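Quick start: what a row looks like.
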Amino acid sequence: MELSILLNEVPDKQIYGDPRGVEIRGVVYDPLRVQPGFIYVAISIYTQLDKIEIPDGHVGVAAAIDRGAVAVMLERDQPVPPHVVKVLVPDSRQALGRISAHFYQFPSNSLDLIAVTGTNGKTTTTHIVESIFIQKYKIGLIGTLYYKMNGVIHKSKDTTPEPPDLQEILRKMADEKYDYCIMETSSHGIEFHRLTGCTFKTAVFTNLTQDHLDFHKTMENYLNAKLKLFRWLTPADHAIVNIDDPAGEKFLDATRAQTLTYGLSERAQVRATHIHYRINGTDYTLVTPGGEIDIHTKLVGRFNIYNALAAVGVALSQGLDLQSIRSGLEARIWVSGRFELVEKGQPFAVVVDYAHTPDGVENVLSLAKSLNPNRVITVFGCGGDRDKEKRPIMGETAARYSDEIILTSDNPRTEEPLQIIEQIAAGCSGASLHRVPDRGEAIRSAVKMAQPGDIVMLLGKGHETTQTLRDRTIDFNDRIQAEKALDDLPAL
């Protein structure tokens, strides 16, 4: 695409050099990914892996030019060789979103985008939607764990990919005639303009609880970031809202779209009644404006009922029938690190879960307690260099539901693990408390401690396969660690 045409999407720009006749072969934000004929956009690269890879993309301009960039887009002026077109913009992230969508020919106009936002439940909700829709439609998935096309899983480093990566994925889906794409939409993704250039037809709000305050600073800012998604919707679009959440009304007020509410309260349009929880599933009656139907799902717990109801809301908004919805809900929906059972024939349960917020911890531990175990043994920590205010809150929450707590490391990063542990411990009371900074040793201790009828809860890392320490990142997987610990137990 000619640079002069590409730049038509960018307002308030200053161009130095002649963009006419300059053919752009690719759009990148990482200088190491530049190839001859590319435009390089200088942004700060922030990943959900909590690592700043390039704190300021302007330092990579020279490297990008050396690798063949024919144009650069900057927020701050700096000299470039005369053969390189320089574009100055007030917000390079917003401009990156605009030109990425244009370069890939606005793929979201060719398929229906469904966005799921909220603190907890996004990953599971997207997988349930996929399970329902895949029976009748061609649907892609983009989320925390990966993006998926044609049943093939591709790794992803961000919940919401950076614009060139996102638009390229959507372009592939559009070219292959996908009907829908269901995607997790993080507050970072919204604030960093990763969604600029996307047209959404449906948006889902799951819940809002304390998280990411290291970035947003206040809950009001966090809320407002997510509300932006619903303000983008038109009267022809659909908004699916958890009416039981205190913030639910704000999302209804913020949107012009057609709304459908879900929850467990009677005012919800989509709700569940006659609920029965099992260690390996949940039974309930699904109540909708179009009728009722009994559901027997393999998903466990109250929070997964909410996730399922959100997915049902999406399905109903798109005209799917109750039988198709039931088939999707009752299929095996596997989501790594979401109330994931680790089974080696032991006489107690071991569960791996990604819960890393006060609300997430409350959800999974209240479920564990409701299953009437002999004891609940909880292993968890909190991430370093991130929202410190939630640490004692998570400690208090864990203590309410646990008989034994083993405080350990999550991703300590640059902080001292013991310091983080003590900040969590300040909120713990009533439970037997142990401090084991080494996470592998903490898991082994929990497994050795467990007796028949106990539930061991390994919280915080879920699907993650690494642990970030002060000076390095190591391979670490809670499931694998638990399996090894179970294998080392004496023969039962």
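That is the whole record. Residues 340-487 form a domain with the Protein-Tyrosine Phosphatase; Chain A fold (CATH 3.90.190.20). The first helix runs from residue 3 to 6.
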